[in-house]
Amino acid sequence: MDTIMNWINENSGLIIHYAVQAVLALIIFFIGGRIAKFCEGLTEKAFDKKKVDKAVGSFVASIVYAIVFAATILMALSQLGIETTSFIAILGAAGLAVGLALQGSLSNFASGVLIILLRPFKSGDYVEAGGKAGTVKKIEIFSTELRTPDNKVIIMPNSSIMGSPITNFSRESTRRIDLVIGVGYDADLKEAKAVLKSVLDKEERLLKDPAYTVAVSELADSSVNFVVRPWVNSADYWPTYFDLMENIKIALDDANITIPFPQMDVHLHKED
């Protein structure tokens, strides 16, 4: 017992020093933990304000918490006099290995976050992206689900969507229908134009503003081509498109205006 007391007396300064260091390390650990929690909550709130998917917000917030908490542990260990350089090197090597192993998944995750933040489309929009087209059904962390008009389900990696041009057909409330109608060179162009306009005037789904356009666009090899460009509400696009194509054909037939089509002449030679 006397030996212990003597050792304590002889090393009292050192003991007090390490005790103070330990207390400071605990304080750093405690405060750092609170700061990590605060940063996690702040991140979640920021994502909530942006109306980001909760799963994405929670995942990113947990990453922020882990980074801040890891930095807190390293600071606490450093306060105790423990060399942290080796720990940092090990963590860096481990992070690099994990990043290389999961680079595809991480790329999809980052693209998913960008889709949710930038909002190039939302659920219910009809889009074309990554060479595929369909209605957006789900936007998830790593992939996006599209449903085609013929009811096929396409699961696309988010990285392939963000890595290509995105065409959103549903974002605007109105769309223009672009039709090219060809008539024969022997047709009366004024009559043909009047017939096309009469079909458009009868279609109630067409918008008055902007007004439609009917004009000669090209003197082609075998036809005179008209461009027919009316505007409709986006929801009425395809029904109106199909009806216009049918009604224009019927109206031109009734007016005896021909629509040229490719023809092939076959010549037969009789050998003696």
From TrEMBL:
Domain Mechanosensitive ion channel MscS, first and last residues per copy:
105-171
The alphabetized UniProt keywords are: Cell inner membrane, Cell membrane, Ion channel, Ion transport, Membrane, Transmembrane, Transmembrane helix, Transport
Q: Does the keyword Membrane apply?
A: yes
Identify the domain of life.
Answer: Bacteria
- Which segments constitute the Mechanosensitive ion channel transmembrane helices 2/3 domain? 63-103
Q: Which residues cross the membrane?
A: 15-36, 56-82, 88-118
Please provide an example of a Pfam family that matches this protein in its UniProt record.
MS_channel_1st
For the Mechanosensitive ion channel MscS C-terminal domain, which residue ranges apply? 177-259
How this chain sits in the membrane, per its record, is: Multi-pass membrane protein
Cellular compartment(s):
Cell inner membrane; Cell membrane
Which InterPro entries does its entry note? LSM_dom_sf, MS_channel_1st, MS_channel_C, MSC_TM_helix, MscS_archaea/bacteria_type, MscS_beta-dom_sf, MscS_channel_2nd, MscS_channel_C_sf
Describe its assembly: Homoheptamer.
The text of the family note is: Belongs to the MscS (TC 1.A.23) family.
Known function? Mechanosensitive channel that participates in the regulation of osmotic pressure changes within the cell, opening in response to stretch forces in the membrane lipid bilayer, without the need for other proteins. Contributes to normal resistance to hypoosmotic shock. Forms an ion channel of 1.0 nanosiemens conductance with a slight preference for anions.
The entry's protein name is: Small-conductance mechanosensitive channel
Annotated source species: Pseudoalteromonas shioyasakiensis
In the record, what lineage is assigned to the organism producing the protein? Bacteria, Pseudomonadati, Pseudomonadota, Gammaproteobacteria, Alteromonadales
